[in-house]
Design goal:
Blueprint lengths: L1 E7 L6 H17 L4 E3 L25 H13 L2 E3 L3 E4 L6 E8 L5 E6 L5 E4 L2 E4 L4 E2 L6 E4 L2 E7 L6 H5 L6 E6 L3 H19 L2 E6 L14 E4 L5 E5 L4 E7 L1 H10 L9
Parallel strand pairs: 1-2, 2-3, 5-9, 11-12, 12-13
Antiparallel strand pairs: 1-16, 3-5, 4-5, 5-6, 7-8, 10-11, 13-14, 14-15
Amino acid sequence: MTTVAAVQMISTPDVSENIASARRLVGEAAARGATLVTLPEYWPIMGMSDSDKLAHAEAPGQGPIQDCMAQAAREHGIWLIGGTLPLVSTDAGRVMNTTLVYDPQGRPVQRYDKIHLFGFTRGAESYDEARTIVPGDAVATFEAPFGRVGLSVCYDLRFPELYRAMGECALVVVTAAFTHTTGLAHWEVLLRARAIENQCYVLASAQGGTHRNGRRTFGHSMLIDPWGEVKAVLDEGEGIVSGALDPAFLAGVRESLPALKHRKL
């Protein structure tokens, strides 16, 4: 059995403040016995405007945000999935929205640049990530001691073909800053669907509350098992969701209902 944990935050425009919160919450997750921990999307900065993150974009391997994640992974001896941070891109006016994975020695072992960029407009509520983010183009997984882990971010959750392209995973991680509007309607049902159809655990780490910029994120970080049952959830507010991955249960689901072997297309 492996214990995993998702950190839920209400990130602010202040990077140093968010780094301090992330350090504390990752430490709490490790103290609960988690050997894999994930931070949410945009954990280092939720600016007053979408363009604020450009000033904090780091080059790969350099900067206080990456230093924080590497040090936390090494200090606690955990696999740390660093939510997303802004990394420099080839476009001066936009960044990559990037997930970095660190091993228990604090070494970076995988990178995923968010592929699907969120766009939504309803009344006064409007989002267009493509204005400040360059999309990625490669599916990313990594091998943990308990099996393959697939990486995805927020809006990716609506595109099941991404998860099929990961191959058979023991765990899929979703880091997110889902809006309250779309989260209330679709968050849990989509997470459970991804767990059921891929017969794997899903660990979702979200922003969860009202931010200083006025945006309200949905929260509801959760762990879901391969049968689609929610094993742990945190509604709104800062905190930790944790639970166990049971390889025998995972194998049993796939043996009794071998849907992955029954695929035709």
